[in-house]
Prior knowledge:
This protein is an alpha/beta fold. The chain has a single domain (17-238), classed as Alpha-Beta Barrel (TIM Barrel), CATH 3.20.20.70. The protein has helices at residues 22-28, 39-52, 71-83, 96-102, 116-123, 136-144, 157-166, 188-193, 203-206, 211-228, 232-238; strands at residues 31-36, 56-60, 89-94, 106-109, 128-133, 150-153, 177-180, 199-201. β7, α8 and β8 (199-201) form a beta-alpha-beta unit. α2 (39-52) packs parallel to α3, α2 (39-52) crosses α10 and α6 packs parallel to α7. The two termini are 28 Å apart. Residues 108-205 form the Thiamine phosphate synthase/TenI domain. One of its GO terms (cellular component) is cytoplasm. This is Thiamine phosphate synthase/TenI domain-containing protein.
Amino acid sequence: MAACADPPVLWQACPVTALMGIAARLKLARLIHILPDEPDAAGPLARASYAGGADAVMLDEDLAEVIADDTAALGLDAITEAARATQGLTAYLGRPVRAASLSPDLFVLADDEADPARTRKVVGEWTMIGRRCNSTAETEAALAHPDVDFLVVGPGLPLIRHAAEHAPQHDPKSKPWFAVGGITIESLPAVIRGGAMRAAVGGAITRASNPEAAAMQLKDILREAWNADERMEAVSASAFGTSPQLTFDTKLVPPADGRHL
């Protein structure tokens, strides 16, 4: 089955991806937009990001502050509302307890000491758990951990190259990982040459004069790189899993008693 192309009308959901599970959509995802915890801005920015082609919008809750209000809930509500138009993924970077109450599609552990296995019990089996990796050791540990579904890797090209060596993006068995760390439209090609096929971007979209256009440019660069590498076809195909092949040349033999099939 071929991957669904991005629709020319960006607010119209792809009929294939709309029926796919979170894990499959994560595997096909190429662009995450990271948003600050500002609920007033979350809705407009999320709508612009999804319209521009972002596969997921992630709310980044500042752990340095004592959160005693509902700003994160309001922010993710706004993202979820925006996601409905395109079947985009919702994401949250912060604390497991908060993630359990917000129920995002994707959750990235903000605490480097947090245990993914314990986190799985808190957030449930349906939320995909990600690990933010700032070193080669963290990257290797996250790749090996059975409860880590995806990685956010960076900053720096050396770390991205390390991730690409240990989890080649063209290998369907590799965990999805997203390069991160001040990535811009201008620097993205170098990140791709380093071995990344997915990126998590913040300011390049958030601070753009036209966030939708910025997201579209970033997604176009990633799409072109993905499509230019024939090996990525196996990754796209693997997202759909193994399903029975439909055949239309098999003759149906009616039962002996004459009943209709």
